[in-house]
Amino acid sequence: MKRLLGMEMIEKGLLEEMGLELNLKPWATDGGAHFWEVPKTAFRSVYDDQPNAHKKFMEKLDACIRNHDKEIEKMCNFHHQGFVDAITELLKVRTDAEKLKVQVTDTNRRFQDAGKEVIVQTEDIIRCRIQQRNITTVVEKLQLCLPVLEMYSKLKEQMSAKRYYSALKTMEQLENVYFPRVSQYRFCQLMIENLPKLREDIKEISMSDLKDFLESIRKHSDKIGETAMKQAQQQKLFSVILQKQNNVKFGKTMYINDRIPEERSEIVLKPVFEEEDENEEEVLTVQDLVDFSPVYRCLHIYSVLGDEETFENYYRKQRKKQARLVLQPQSNMHETVDGYRRYFTQIVGFFVVEDHILHVTQGLVTRAYTDELWNMALSKIIAVLRAHSSYCTDPDLVLELKNLIVIFADTLQGYGFPVNRLFDLLFEIRDQYNETLLKKWAGVFRDIFEEDNYSPIPIVNEEEYKTVISKFPFQDPDLEKQSFPKKLPMSQSVPHIYIQVKEFIYASLKFSESLHRSSTEIDDMLRKSTNLLLTRTLSSCLLNLIKKPHIGLTELVQIIINTTHLEQACKYLEDFITNITNISQETVHTTRLYGLSTFKDARHAAEGEIYTKLNQKIDEFVQLADYDWTMSEPDGRASGYLMDLINFLRSIFQVFTHLPTNSNDHAAMSGKVAQTACMSACQHLSTSLMQMLLDSELKQISMGAVQQFNLDVIQCELFASSEPVPGFQGDTLQLAFIDLRQLLDLFMVWDWSTYLADYGQPASKYLRVNPNTALTLLEKMKDTSKKNNIFAQFRKNDRDKQKLIETVVKQLRSLVNGKKGKTNI
After folding, report:
1. b/e per residue, 237-260, with b = 16+ CB within 10 A?
2. CA–CA distance from 499 to each of 42, 435, 441, 502, 573 (Å)?
3. CB–CB of 689/622 below 8 Å?
4. Exposed, middle or buried by CB within 10 Å (0-12, 13-18, 19+), for 760?
5. Residue 267: per-residue pLDDT
6. Cα(first)–Cα(last) distance of the chain, in Å?
7. In this predicted model, what pLDDT tens digit does every residue of 88-116 receive, in sequence order?
8. pTM score, two decimals?
9. Which of 548, 532, 555 minimizes the C-alpha distance to 455?
10. Inter-axis angle of helices 553-581 and 493-512, to 10 degrees?
11. Which residues form the Exocyst complex component EXOC6/Sec15 N-terminal domain (predicted)?
């Protein structure tokens, strides 16, 4: 301080001596912060203000130093005596100080010796207190750590016991409650670092359990579905039995709900319920068949871990994959009903599990998810069934498939899944079922026709008569009055066909069972399918039968009789359907059976075939004709082939007496068929004989041959006049031979003048003789060679007769050419 003050004074004096003015701020005010500013300012003034200032400054500085040295010397001289006195006193004190030091050292030694034991005891006390404090601290820390260690040990036990959900809860307690208390310890850090690994282990283990569960339910889906479908079927059958009992209680007959009459349903239902009673105590649920604990555990674990969404996505993804596998059918599924049953049970098992998961968990499976999955599955199921059912040709297999689909639909409907599209599919399968039935019954009808003998049914006694009547609704009062043995007009195929049509109705009715349709719809379906059977299948079989070569005229006549009785039985078939469905025929929308038109068409076809075969038979006989067209004299009797033909025709027309005449309509019908057949035969015979005369290969005909031919025509006329079939008026049948008769009379009488004179007049005697026909026959009779001696008798009587023939030929040619001239005969 003094030094600073002195320097300041020196600088100030120097500056004043140099004539430099400088405002110096007190250095003490800011603690000497401006001390160095003074020299800097002074030096700047020395060098900047005046020339030669430096030299002057150095001189002044030396003078100032000398002055100060003098002042310092004065000051030291002034204080020297005091300094010396102080040293002297200090030397005196040193002796006392050494004595005091010796005393203090001795006292300290004695004190140290006396305090050694105390120090030892004190150290012991300190050490004990430290230990006591440490023990207390350790106890306190252990009280904090022991629960943590116990919980961690509990965690390990839970992991070992696979109680993973409890282990996760324990981890939460450790993290939230226990670890914060002991977080400063290293073992706690190790535990904290180990918990994420344990969580991952739990996730992997639970996911592995879930995978095992998914694999297990995939293998057991068919068993689950089988149980569910069996329970649904038993529930339905129980409802049917209960409803039947109520109907019996109220005196009602039940058809539609059972879809079959009661006596048939009892046969079907009784064994089922006997089995149900035996197994009543063994009703299993899906929980009994499947252990769902892996799903619950995994769901809870992922929920605790906050990763529930990952678990849900994985579960749904895997289940969708399994659904696609379940919905993929085997290639040969359509071959047996077991293939379809296995397919349905797996699907039912899949959705039963999903429904259970939906109701026992929250969020893992939602209703929207199951609906989406079901809609996807339903579309696939319908496509699969539509494709595979198209391969089914056995109606029994199609019916079993329908029953499986109904049980399948009822089962899933009980779990809340919409199944209307399945019942719509059943209507498509119903059409296919009807087609397979029609094919099957076509074979049945063919077998019946093949086994039929096409002869009336012989009845020996009353028992046989009642047996036939019980199978076929036949009523004939006149026949009932006859004594045994007797014959029914139809053949064995008629009651068999009637029975098979009823069986077809029963078979068609079986498919309508449990389709949830009204009685009116069932009735309409039965009638439509029966109409298809009659109009398509039976009609086709009848037409094919009629066209078969081995079916003769007798068989055709019997077929006509059979179709007549089948036509009459159609009203009984309608009554049969009405009794089944309880729908009156008077209902506005009731479909009628088309059996009447079917059997009429078959009968008309049979009649046409009779006419055709009869004409073919006539042609066969005519082909046996062996005329000697150059014979001079006739044999005097008709040709053998013609007599055989007439006898054949008599026997054939005798068969027509068997045609049914039990009513006026049928009597008229049978008479018409017989008359038409007889007229057709006579006309065809007449035409065949005429063609024989006019055959282009026949070059010449003698008068003897004409006379012989006339004898054959006379036999034909006698046959026609003998009324082989009753009902013809007058000589209607004989008119079939009028063309031949007039032509032969013209040549036999040689009445050319009358023919040519009356030609073209309505009352002409030879109105049916065509000029062209007469010309052709006349030219065959001309004497065109030496061998021809036809006109020898005319030459003997009148040689001019040859010219007459030539004139007739010219006139006939003129008529053929449309020119008519006068005759000079």
Report:
1. beebbeebeebeeeeeebbbebbb
2. 152, 19, 12, 5, 10
3. yes
4. exposed
5. 32
6. 202
7. 888 888 888 888 889 999 898 888 888 88
8. 0.66
9. 555
10. 30
11. 60-229
